Amino acid sequence: MISDEVRAIWCRELKRDNISVDDDFFALGGQSVIMVGIQGAFMEELGVEVPMDQMFLNPTIATISAYIESQGAVAS
Fold it and tell me: N or C of the chain: less Cβ packing under 10 Å?
């Protein structure tokens, strides 16, 4: 599932062991520098470009995963 891969990226970039699919990126201490790292990981690991505005509009693993899936990305 895409959400499992997104969760792994978020945990690594936010340096947390576990994040719920409904946790808010900004409430977890996320900031623009971390967001850029996540954006790069999406491109490198999932092969999908996620525009920065979509990262702000979809601040949870659930919502950004749904966006990524809507762009045709599939889990590896």
Answer: C
